[in-house]
Amino acid sequence: MPQITYIDSDGNKHQVELPLGATIMEGAVQNDIKGIIAECGGSCMCATCHCYIGEKYLDKLPEMEEEEDEMLEGAVAPRTERSRLGCQVRISNALDGLVVEIPQEQ
Amino acid sequence: MLLPLLVPNIPPNSNPMKKNVIIIGAGHAGIQAAASLREEGFEGSICIFSEDADFPYQKPPLSKGYLDGSQQKNSIMFRSEAWYENNQVELKLGELVVKVDISQKTVHATSGEYAFDFLVFATGAYNRELPIPIKGTDQPLYLRTMKDADCLKEALDQEGVQDILVIGGGFIGLEVAAYAAKSGKKVTVVEYQPRLMQRVLPPMLSEHFAAKHQAYGVDLRMGVGVQDLTQDSKWLASLSTGESVTADQVIVGIGVLPSQVLAQEAGIRCSNGIEVNAYCETSVAGIYAIGDCALHPNPFAKGQMVRLESVQNAVDQAKVIASTICGKPSSYHQCLGFGRTNITSNYKWPVYPKAMTNSSSEEM
Ligand SMILES: Cc1cc2nc3c(=O)[nH]c(=O)nc-3n(C[C@H](O)[C@H](O)[C@H](O)COP(=O)(O)OP(=O)(O)OC[C@H]3O[C@@H](n4cnc5c(N)ncnc54)[C@H](O)[C@@H]3O)c2cc1C
Ligand code: FES
Q1: Distance of alpha carbon B272 from alpha carbon B277, whole angstroms
Q2: Do A44 and B348 make contact, defined as CB atoms within 8 angstroms?
Q3: Is A44 near chain B, with CB under 8 Å?
């Protein structure tokens, strides 16, 4: 299973293994990692699963749909080039070793 | 030596952070209330009663990812089991609260009687039933809970189920219609109002959604009521126009009503919802109502009393009561601002998958 490192909203590191096909949001919620709120349960309509993706993996991510792009505009923490919604990124083998940073605010 | 005299006569358990809270309802409002209480440093006990026996889950995906199979049960849970344990939030699942006694400060549930210092109604809403004569061995389908969604999915995916009638052109009806059309069914939507989602959408957007659905062959009948439903080998719906529609399955989405009977019977003021003030406090001190069940003065509606049915409203009101209970009621101003989005836009529109939308614009 791919290994993912979360840096939670307090700056603490958590290394977890996630099954293929799970989303970054689900991995955070199920492992009780602070900072991902996921109000809408992964329906791409709340932007409270905003996270910053490690630079090296940006080109390995699934492409962003228009809906996600729109929701990210409403995210509370600043949007950067590394911004994605955790519920819209599914774990693949290519993401093994990924580091995900969670902003302080959602 | 003077010190003790300066301290008012405080009963032993008066630190608000150590009192006990009972929450009725494990939807967005109830779960967020528990989470926010802990985030605010609340140390007392928190117990959530839920009539629904399923492990607490989010409702929006039920008509979206959960229905189309892209999200499974465990991916729509609010929190992991470990979270409830680590945060000492007790869940009483499958337990209906049948009575609230405001003078004794107790709730009566299936398993017994429980005392509270603070009580939170997060009881949500339930589906309005079709107020017309219905004859048949089956009932039309509704969607509110995970069980409903499982039944709906099973019914729609059954072999031979081809013609679908959706009564009600609101969010949920349209989301289900979109799913059914996408799976190749022939779908008719009957809406009483002259246009889709009249209450929350401007005419232009109603038309936009209507066109989108029609492009996929959904037969939209606007300004039409259903007068009765009869089930023989198929369902037969007689319409107010004199026409009739046949269907293998009928799905009803004609709005919800606030779950307020419990509060009403306890003597708490209710009208179209449990009435609360700007701090989400009911007519009884120490008792709060949040989410779909709460009728609140809305700053965006010039202080008029409104009841909203959205995740954001539920979550924001939960945050309000958490800080109020912890003795910091001022944060209400930030929270109740419906800041991120407005009443209509925080609903995800019933959309067709990208591929279908693209091909439609080519065809049109
Ligand atoms: C299919 C569907 C799709 C939706 N899509 C969206 C969307 O896209 N965006 C959006 O913003 N909103 C959406 N909503 C609305 C949103 O889900 C609600 O606004 C939200 O769930 C309200 O949360 P709540 O906690 O107030 O109430 P609920 O989620 O209704 O929870 C209340 C709970 O209280 C329990 N309860 C009630 N009475 C008792 C009792 N006496 N004893 C014990 N337990 C009791 C009930 O079992 C229920 O589980 C959707 C709703 C549905 C059904
Ligand atoms: S969980 Fe709501 S947008 Fe991702």
Answers
A1: 14
A2: yes
A3: yes
